[in-house]
Design goal:
- This protein is globular.
- With about 375 residues, the chain is an alpha/beta fold.
- It has two domains: about 240 residues, 3-Layer(aba) Sandwich (Aspartate Aminotransferase, domain 2), CATH 3.40.640.10; about 120 residues, Alpha-Beta Complex (Aspartate Aminotransferase, domain 1).
- The chain has eleven helices and 15 strands.
- Helix content is about 40%, strand content about 15%.
- The strands form four sheets. It has a seven-stranded mixed beta sheet, with helices on both faces.
Length: about 375
C-alpha cells in the first residue's frame, strides 16, 4: 500500500546523497577528533569545518556554536545549565504554556526543586504576547525561554520582541528554534542561546546545536571530557556534524523555493479538508505560520481513533500530543488555545517530498475517515 507521509514536523526524510557523502568521509576520517595525532586532527578539521558552516548559517561565531546529542539536549543545557547557577529563591524564570515538552519538563523539574516559574498563555490564535512577558518580569527574573514557532500549530511567536525586552531588563534569553530552523530568519542580536537540530530539515538524527553567545556561563550537566567547551562531554560524531552542515546548507540555500512549494501544498490540503468536512476548523488560522504545519481539530472525534483510521488507509500524521504509558494525552498546546479540543486534533505536516497530488489524495482520505467516524460515533 502506498503511504503518504505527512509527519514532517516529527522528522523529515534526509537528503540521501548528503548522508552518503558524509558517511564516506567519516569512513576515511574515522579517528577521534580529540586525538592529537595526524588522523585525529584530520577528523577534527572535518568537525570544525561543519561547525563553521552552521555558525555561518545562523550568524554566529564558530566558538559560539556547540554540537549536542540532539535538540532536547541543547534545550536542557540552555535552561538547566543557566537555572542551576542560582539557588531556589534567588531566581525567577519565564516560559510559555505552549512550549515543546523538552522545555516544559525542564521548568517542571526546576519547580520541583523550589524555583519559581511563570507560564505565558497564548491567545486563541496560539500566540503569546510580548506585553504579557514584560508584565511578568520581576527584579529577580534571570531567564526566559520562548520558542520561535510552535511545533504543533506552526504559529510564529514574537520571539524577537520578547528578546529585546529581555535584553533591556538584563534577562538571559533562550529560544527553541528547532521547528523554525530553515523556515524563518534568524537574528541573534538580542538572543543569548538558541537551539536547533537538523532532522526537522532533511538532515540526520542524533545531533543538535546550541548557540551560546560569547560570555554565556552554563552549568555542565554532562561530566567527562572537555569537548564542546565542557558543556557536552563525549566524543563528537564527525559523520553527523558533516551531514548536519551539508543538509542545512542545501535546505537554507533553497529555502525560498522550498517554503513556497510546501506552503502551496499545505494550503491546498487545508482548503480541501475544510471544504469537505463538517465541524472541523484550522488552528492558528489567523496567525503567521510556518509553511509546512497544519493543525486541524475535528470536533467530537477522538484523535487516536482518527489517526488509526488514517494510518490504515495509508496516511501518516500525528496528534499534537505525547504518547505516555500507551495512552494519547490531550495536546497541551491546543488545550491552552481552545480548551476541550486537545483530544480531537490532528497535525499534518508537509515537506519537500510532498506533492499536490499527494495533498489531494490525503485530503480525500481524511474526508472519508471523518465521515466514517461521525457515522460510527453518531456525531
Amino acid at each position: 500500500m502506498e503511504t503518504i507521509y505527512l509527519d514532517n514536523a516529527a522528522s523529515t526524510k534526509p537528503y540521501s546523497d548528503i548522508m552518503q557523502q558524509a558517511f564516506e568521509s567519516s569512513v576515511k576520517n574515522f579517528a577521534n577528533p580529540s586525538s592529537l595525532h595526524y588522523a585525529g586532527q584530520k577528523a577534527a578539521s572535518e568537525l570544525e569545518a561543519a561547525r563553521e558552516s552552521i555558525a555561518g548559517l545562523i550568524g554566529s561565531e564558530a566558538s559560539e556554536a556547540l554540537f549536542s546529542p540532539g535538540g532536547s539536549a541543547s534545550v536542557n543545557a540552555a535552561i538547566l545549565g543557566t537555572a542551576l547557577r542560582y539557588q531556589p529563591g534567588e531566581a525567577h524564570f519565564i516560559t510559555s504554556a505552549i512550549e515543546h515538552s523538552s522545555v516544559l519538563e525542564c521548568f517542571g523539574a526546576l519547580e520541583g526543586r523550589g524555583y519559581e516559574v511563570d507560564y505565558l498563555m497564548p491567545d486563541e490564535r496560539g500566540v503569546v504576547s510580548a506585553a504579557a512577558f514584560e508584565a511578568a518580569v520581576r527584579e529577580n527574573t534571570k531567564l526566559v525561554s520562548v520558542m520561535a514557532a510552535n511545533n504543533e500549530t506552526g504559529a510564529i511567536q514574537p520571539i524577537y520582541e520578547i528578546a529585546k525586552i529581555g535584553r533591556q531588563a538584563g534577562i538571559i534569553v533562550h529560544t527553541d528554534f528547532i521547528a523554525a530552523f530553515g523556515h524563518m530568519p534568524i537574528s541573534l542580536e538580542d538572543i543569548d542561546m538558541l537551539s536547533i537540530c537538523p532532522h526537522k530539515l532533511y538532515g540526520p538524527k542524533g545531533i543538535g546545536l546550541l548557540y551560546a553567545k560569547k560570555g554565556t556561563r552554563l552549568y555542565s550537566l554532562i561530566h567527562g571530557g572537555s569537548q564542546e567547551q565542557g558543556v557536552f562531554a563525549g566524543t563528537q560524531p564527525v559523520f553527523l556534524a558533516k551531514a548536519f552542515a551539508l543538509s542545512s546548507e542545501r535546505a537554507t540555500k533553497q529555502a525560498l523555493e522550498l517554503n513556497t512549494q510546501v506552503r502551496a501544498v499545505r494550503e491546498f490540503f487545508e482548503n480541501s479538508v475544510l471544504e469537505g468536512s463538517e465541524r472541523c476548523f484550522l488552528n492558528s488560522a489567523d496567525a503567521d505560520r510556518l509553511p509546512g504545519i497544519s493543525s486541524i481539530s475535528f470536533e467530537g472525534i477522538p484523535a487516536d481513533r482518527l489517526l488509526a483510521a488514517l494510518d490504515a488507509d495509508g496516511l501518516t500524521a500525528s496528534a499534537g500530543a505525547a504518547c505516555k504509558a500507551g495512552g494519547l494525552e490531550p495536546s497541551h498546546v491546543i488545550e491552552a488555545m481552545r480548551p476541550g479540543y486537545g483530544s480531537s486534533t490532528i497535525r499534518f505536516s508537509f515537506g519537500r517530498c510532498n506533492t499536490m497530488g499527494e495533498a489531494g489524495k490525503a485530503a480525500g482520505i481524511v474526508i472519508k475517515a471523518v465521515k466514517r467516524a461521525r457515522q460510527q460515533f453518531s456525531l
